[in-house]
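FAQ: What does the model actually see?

It sees only this:
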Amino acid sequence: MSLDILALLALVIVIIISAIRTDLNTGLLSIAFAYVIGVYFAGLSVSEVSTYLPEQLVLTLVGVTLLFEMAHENGTLDKLASLAMRSVHGHPTFLPIVFFLFTFLFSAIGPGNIAAVALIAPIGMVVAISSGINPLVMAIMICTGANAGAFSPIALTGIINTGLMRNVGINDPNVTLQIFLLVAGLQSISAVLAYFFFAGYRIQKTSTIDVASIESNIEPFNKKQILTLVAIFSLVIGVIIFKVSVTVGAFVLAGLLGLLKIGDAEKGLQKLPWGIISLVAGISVLVGLLETTGGLDLATNILASYSSTNTINGLLAFVTGIVSIYSSSSGVVMPTFIPLLPSLLERLGGGDLIEMVVAVNVGSHLVDVSPLSTLGALCLAALPATFDKSIMFRRLLLWGLSMSIVGGLLAFIFLDLL
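And it is asked to produce this:
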């Protein structure tokens, strides 16, 4: 068996195992495959295989997530979410839209899509039941809003995406913002479709849950929380306006919060998403080996044989959506497919690299409303105990699966045709 086939087969095995064994961090398995194939089959040294580790990306992930874990630990993010929720009381018709905007904002300013849903879903799903809003609509709006904001330059997924784009030659910070806006726009279209398709504007008073108990008794921000908010918005302004490195800014601000005892750095470090960090790093190491052995070229040829310059974005969105149903969107799908794009562009003899990145981003994340994903599962878990969750599970699953087709169609229409 040739090295390119062997390396590509290893990646396929990792993706399949990630779908079957959700208890196993396949990033570690990816590193193991990379060392075995690289050292014992490709004749590389251990140090040569180690160079595939994306150090810059890992440092950025650690710095940003540490800052926001410290903000979560001292209650800043929870209080901000509660205050935001209270502002929508009395306007049930627009609740799904407002919750979409809230999760978009929370995701975009740094915590990322999973953290945003974890903060808002427990309130949003209860508010939906109590206000007579279709809980399916609320779940879709919360998850889609979080994913619309996920590609912000300072959010976890956005940082991963920026690192992957840098590796394929896209270094312009303006492109990062462009992709963020394009992805947010396509995600918003799917949210609007869901809102009207499921009649999210219809109100049915069928519950007696007291929302006031959730919205009341919110104390003002204390001094530490105010300073934490200043730090967060300083990072946002620094990155977007003054082009400060998000890695540098996050570590400096996290260090200051810890030094001044505004946030607990030790607890923040303990709660970092080491699983996703090691997953992204591990997949990147294996993909780096694929590039050396010719495995990426082989995968590119396979994709190119089924597509053209007029259909490639739709195909990418559909394929990444299917794979993402059972695999991590930012941890497996993006690090696997984005490195393929430059070679795929060359094979096709045309196309737009940035649009192809957008197609991968949209396709891999539209399906995340499924209860098999973290976001969908968080919304499902947030429903009151009296609600029939089995029905909700089936509806979320059907919507999530259908999004692989919708994602492909949106990418085809807005990226291939227009």
